[in-house]
Amino acid sequence: MSCQNLNVVTKNFLIRLAIYILYSILGALVFMSIENNAIEEELKNLEKTRIQARNSLAEMQNSTHFFNMTVDQMVAFARRVVQVENELSATPTKWTYDQGYRLTFEIMTTIGYGSTPPKTQTGRLLCVFYTLVGIPIFLYFMKSIGEVLNRGMTSLVRHLEKKVLKRNEDKNVELKVLIGFIIALILDVSLEIIVVAQDKKRDFTVIDAFYCVIITATTVGFGDLTLENELTMIISLSLLSTVLDGVLCYMEKTIEEQINETKGCQCFGLNKNENRNTTEDAEAYGADNKAVTVEDLSRDEKM
């Protein structure tokens, strides 16, 4: 790999990484601002409702002596008490930056756990347009990660071929790189499963951890069991997408080679078996001609 190609790959990776980070930060701040403004209005309205509920409860208690209440009045009073308690306890919390970033991450990766969805009309409308722009940005970012990983794995395979196995020719490099990525993906998933299964805060079984990691890595994201570390999710997504891309490229290359080989034989009006038979006939004909030539030379010497 030339230095120029390496510089291009590195430059593309850094540019797309910067765009991804800036877009994520901007989205997190905007969503947090929109949702918090709505929550502040909701808190003001809730405070008014609480005051009205307290006044209504006091009026009900003063209008009728507590011990002289009928059954219906007692039931109405009890229901009102429960309603007031629910209104007093229902206090919405403001969004933090972590919640805003979590939302942008789930949108751009298409995991969609649904842990922090926007609840306002403005937030939901913005979420639609943010998704349409954010997913292509993340895909380009993933492509750059795949290019960097592919370059690194290719260099590693060629280094092992020359230094360890003492082979100067690069044969089936694409297949060996693909096998290397498959091994790396298996190790990454296994490590994640072990870490998640041993997390005492979650109390996951091994099956739960395996289910959670695979469902997240494939971006299905049901949301019943979730991962918290975004970096590990990005690594898994990168390796999985690189493996899938490598499998497709290897299959396309194999099919293309078969098609080219078939076309090459058809250009001479021969199939593979006919070509082999023709070659064998030509070799036999050459051997016969050689034998005849030797006999002729011997006869000429005797004469």
From TrEMBL:
Topological relation to the membrane, as annotated: Multi-pass membrane protein
Biological processes, Gene Ontology terms: stabilization of membrane potential
Gene3D superfamilies: 1.10.287.70
UniProt keyword Isomerase, yes or no: no
Species assigned in the record: Actinia tenebrosa (Australian red waratah sea anemone)
UniProt KW Transferase keyword: no
GO CC entries: plasma membrane
Compartments in which it is found: Membrane
Domain Potassium channel, chain residue ranges per copy: 94-149, 186-238
Domain of life: Eukaryota
Coiled-coil blocks: 29-63
Gene Ontology molecular function: outward rectifier potassium channel activity; potassium ion leak channel activity
Listed transmembrane segments: 13-34, 125-142, 177-197, 209-227
The protein's name: Potassium channel subfamily K member 4-like isoform X1
Family from the record: Belongs to the two pore domain potassium channel (TC 1.A.1.8) family.
Keyword set, alphabetical order: Coiled coil, Ion channel, Ion transport, Membrane, Transmembrane, Transmembrane helix, Transport
